[in-house]
Amino acid sequence: MSAHVFRDRRDAGRQLAVMVATVADASPAPHTLLVLGLPRGGVPVAFEVATLLAAPLDVLPVRKLGLPGNEEVAMGAIAALNGEVAQVVDYDLLQREPAAALLLDRVIRREYTELLRRRRRYRGERPPLDVAGRDVILVDDGLATGATMRAAVLAVRQGHARRIVVAVPVGAADRCARMRTEADACVCVVEAGNLFAVGAWYAEFSQTSDEEVATLLAESERRLQHQLPAASGQR
User: Fold this and answer.
1) Structurally, how many domains does the chain consist of?
2) Which residues form the domain of 219?
3) Nearest Cα residue to 215 out of 37, 71, 86
4) Would you state the torsion angle of the CA atoms of residues 136, 142, 145, 147, taken in this order, to the nearest 10 degrees?
């Protein structure tokens, strides 16, 4: 792997936005664009994409279903679009881990509780997300296993989006290829043969806080309402 490609998530978002713009421009109905960040780390990236496209920004809560005892390994993921829950499960993994399969329902209940908490924290009094007939751009800070993004795509598909574009600064090449079969398009700045870890491609990859997510959503809404230019003090 080369040196860090991105300074931080905001820098990654600006690089990604340039590529996403070419896909968005090809849409026959650009006014229907909606950018959804996957919290928490995908939101700073999505903020920059939404800013360049002058599109509304919102969040789609997702949660990885971590393998008990090895939480970094994804058994699957869930996403919530209003009252509907989309779920993807790695059944091949569960066949190899029968003890984990017995705990799957418990993990789903736990992560669903956290997913609802985050949805309340991020969206507050915002109206329910309506993706029907819209061109939705799903943004995260990277694509490793792809589990959470697959759940997000499924949720938006069930919500009857017109077109779904997955957009990430960096992704494992095989996962990006898979996303092109599940979404209508997948945009990656870097498709890595050996991804290692998403954070390895960033010079600064500290955890995004709930407060930062809420602040970026509010700022994006203000900019869209007033068509304000990007702040000169951006990182």
Assistant:
1) 1
2) 9-60+130-226
3) 37
4) -30
Q: State the CB neighbour count (10 A cutoff) for residue 214.
A: 16
Residues 181-187: contacts with CB under 8 Å, at least 24 apart: 182/150, 182/153, 182/154, 183/138, 183/153, 185/23, 187/16, 187/19, 187/20, 187/23
Contacts of 32 (CB under 8 A, 6+ apart): 133, 134, 135, 162
Of how many residues is the chain composed? 235
| 192 neighbors 171 (Cβ within 8 angstroms) | yes
- CATH number of 158's domain: 3.40.50.2020
Q: Could you identify the residue written with the tokens 């664009």?
A: 33
Q: 128 by DSSP, 3-state: which?
A: coil
Strand partners, 86: 79
Query: Rounded mean pLDDT of 179-208?
Result: 94
Residue 224 has pLDDT above 90, yes or no: no
Supply 231's token pair. Answer: 């702040």
CA distance 166 to 80: 17
The CA distance from 147 to 140, in Å, is: 12
219 within a domain of the structure (yes/no): yes
Residue 116 lies in a domain: no
Alpha-carbon span 210 to 201, nearest angstrom: 23
Mean pLDDT value across residues 225-230: 63
Give yes or no for residue 141 having a pLDDT over 50: yes
First to last CA, the chain: 24
